[in-house]
Amino acid sequence: MTENIKQSTKEGFKAYEVGIHLLPTLSEADVQIEFSKIKSQIEKANGEFISESAPRLFTLAYEIPKTIKAQKKWYETAYFGWVKFELEASALAAIEKYVKELDSTLRYVFVKTVAEDTLVSKDLLANDAEEGEEVLPKAEAALPVTEEVKTEAVEEEVIAE
Fold this sequence. Notes:
The protein is an alpha+beta fold. 22% of the residues lie in helices and 36% in strands. The protein has helices at 28-44, 92-101, 122-126, 138-141; strands at 13-22, 48-68, 71-88, 105-113. The two termini are 35 Å apart.
């Protein structure tokens, strides 16, 4: 791995990504409004957007609880979206507080990352594909074709205990 990975394009800025699950009880319009509110807070903090994925409804791997008006409710689905952005490190706490306090937030995570593009899972892209259509991430699709790599069989060694 290279030691000189560029962390950000602006002095004092770092790249972050926020992934957020929004309540499945929201309407499609409300989901977009809530997502826009988060992006607006990033802009107000002088953040610069790198990339994003608008929230879409997903089935969760396990139920997630949320207490709403003193009543605990369990959710099997949620809208998931993410935003990758650059921001001064000192401004991140205010953004995190805002996301945490949103009534529509089921769960969220902030991750420090790099500004360069990343690969997207084929499983996530498959949801956007029409039936029978194969979808590859742009970065993978753009890789040059190389000669087939020949491999040699490796003999197993018995290790004495």
